[in-house]
Amino acid sequence: MPTTNTWSGTGIWNSVANWDSGFVPSNGQSVLINGNVTLTNSTARLFSYTLSPGATNIFTGTNTILNASNVFIYGTVTHGINADTNPADGWQWTNRIYISCANFMLAPNGTINGDGMGYMGSRLLDLKGTNGYGPGGGLCYRPVANSYEGGGGGYGGAGGWGQGGPGGVTYGLLTMPEEPGSGGGGAYNQPAGDGGGSVRIDASGVATIYGTITMRGTRGFSNSGGGSGGAILINCDRLAGSTNGLLCVNGGDYFSAGGGGGGGRIAVNYNPASQTNNPGVRFSA
User: Fold this and answer.
1) Which residues pair with 268 in a beta bridge?
2) How many CA atoms lie within 13 A of 102 on its CB side?
3) Given CB 3.0 to 4.6 Å as the disulfide criterion, which of 130, 135, 144, 167 pairs with 152?
4) pTM above the 0.70 mark?
5) How many separate domains does the chain show?
6) Each residue of 190-218: pLDDT tens digit?
7) How far apart are the C-alpha atoms of 21 and 194, rounded to whole Å?
């Protein structure tokens, strides 16, 4: 049997002191996470990875990969926010969740949560707002003098219109969505909603979903727009699970005259010949 390397406490993956074996996990080991760990670099190819109930795994970077033959998630997986606010660089997304495995299982109480971890909404808290950040950032517009309102962020669906102006545009790939959601446009002294994050799971065998994967946009305040939903991408041979399983990329709501965020994108690419039944997993965008 492979040896088990157990993590406790809080720190980054390469913190030797947090591993009971006294060294960072190597190829072929089984890993048990009993605390809060941040992945800043890709792991070795593990035999198994188990995230215990109450434990949290935070991903940083876009190519930081959790590599394991078998992955079992009973706790919470999330990633850092995408903080790019500069359209001149072509919108560089900086964080996501990326898991590469043979078999993946998300337990009934397990969660993969990237709510509000996409591109940010407008944060300019003064007499006017700004456009939301990201390729589908909601627009800030002035329908009358000294009155600013924000449209919702767009992604899989266009952002909602507020009172007088448009939301953000659609973008991304239908079958391979990986970019995070976009932020809402801002209004007078009110922060807008942030876009949802991004998760990619590559399972050469079975991907089993009993828990929830949510990459939702967050709500805009007052006349500001909501953020759009983010991206869920699962590549697998077979999808399994139950009706308790949920994949959700809903856009963020709004309070008053702003626009709601558009839905994100979900893609599950599987082998029809291996799919013996309907797994019952629910989808919401």
Assistant:
1) 234
2) 8
3) 167
4) yes
5) 1
6) 889 999 999 999 999 999 999 999 999 99
7) 40
